[in-house]
Amino acid sequence: MHTDLVAALDIGGTKIAGAVVDGHGTILVRAQRPTPAREDGDTVMRAVEEVLGELTTSPLWGRARAIGIGSAGPVDASAGTVSPVNVPGWRDFPLVERVRAVSGGLPVELIGDGVAITAAEHWQGAARGHDNALCMVVSTGVGGGLVLNGRLHPGPTGNAGHIGHISVDLDGDPCPCGSRGCVERLASGPNIARHALENGWRPGPDGDATAAAVAAAARAGDPVAAASFERAAQALAAGIAATATLVEIDIAVVGGGVGKAGDVLFTPLRKALADYATLSFVRRLTVVPARTGTDAGLVGAAAAALAGLPGAAAGV
């Protein structure tokens, strides 16, 4: 691993985080701004510029050799553009070019946020030491990324591994993506909560109707809440098994808010996976919770920047 420093940006619908990161994945300097997600594209870019501006005041900035960006998607790494669903002001926004200009011409690596978290889990987390892995983020949406033959596999545009839009129910509900019965439509946090509410689950006195509240109810023995997690687990299992059958992964890492539900999710997920992953070469597949925390996006963006440097270690 390089001793070089890199800069990292983690861009989402809520916050824009930035950091200077060393070759061991340690965050040395950080900056953050709220994402002005409802504003026009230039206003959002100004928030990015403020984050970078704050980083450049550090004496360590001068040692940063590249910038990695993990952005909410879709992204197009080949074009250097981003069109995050939750930032309407950015459509085919030339983020790579704009960041390069602000940073004085440093090389910029762009990947989707699911791929960034995959990079972090492979470098520092639950997929460490695994050459073939799928990492998933199950929260408001369902994203993911792949590690194949020991290397991050972002694909030509940086979106490979987007498991949320594998269809697992041919006659299922229409998904906003245009397909039907997608994993995301069954397994994302809001869809777990929606299914529970539609089937008679009711929030407690605090009115919390999120998937976290459904998970708490399931732990307390509510059968409708438990059934909503079992349905989500089945969809995830079908998507994971399809991926494993296609590219021969041996571990699937599940993170994001829904991934924090613990046994309420993982017990039915492992049971369903045994039903779906039946071929000899996918039977040894394990499913584990993610280990990297809230800094995963930054650490993964840094990993992508380090991997892009000349002579970078193959394991990044």
From TrEMBL:
Gene3D superfamilies: 3.30.420.40
InterPro entries in UniProt: ATPase_NBD, ROK, ROK_cs
Pfam families: ROK
Family note: Belongs to the ROK (NagC/XylR) family.
Name of the featured protein: ROK family protein
